[in-house]
Design goal:
With 109 residues, the protein is of the alpha/beta class. It has a single domain, classed as Rhodanese-like domain (Oxidized Rhodanese, domain 1). It contains 5 helices and 5 strands. It has a 5-stranded parallel beta sheet with strand order 1-5-4-2-3. The mean pLDDT is 94.
């Protein structure tokens, strides 16, 4: 069995470039309190409670970036979106922690 994933890894610098140039959907899977304290601008809080609504309304061809705390939990979540037929899925390496350390001025509260 292959260990190759069907999503792409992306670091904070790559995401910053893409957010400036393209229309990406950023979904954040951290807990509600942490999400409320700060997030990547425009990020959607994705939880087990709202994922069916998100999927129902989603554009499956729009680039979708999954963000968590450190870039670990986002990988299975990205793989899950791929399994639902999202065609262009990314996992944010380093997660929100890396984003916050590199781009503290780009935190939405």
């Amino acid at each position: 069995m292959s260990e190759q994933s069907n999503f792409t890894h992306l670091n904070a610098a790559q995401l910053a470039e893409k957010l400036a140039d393209e229309h990406f959907v950023v979904v954040d899977i951290r807990d509600a309190n942490t999400f409320a304290e700060g997030r990547i601008p425009g990020a959607i809080h994705l939880t087990n409670d709202n994922i069916s609504d998100f999927v129902r309304e989603a554009d499956f061809d729009k680039p979708t970036v999954v963000c968590c705390y450190h870039g670990i939990s986002s990988q299975p979540a990205a793989e899950y979106l791929v399994s639902l037929d999202f065609s262009d899925v990314y996992s944010l390496d380093g997660g929100f922690v890396q984003w916050q350390s590199l781009y503290p001025e780009h935190i939405e509260r």
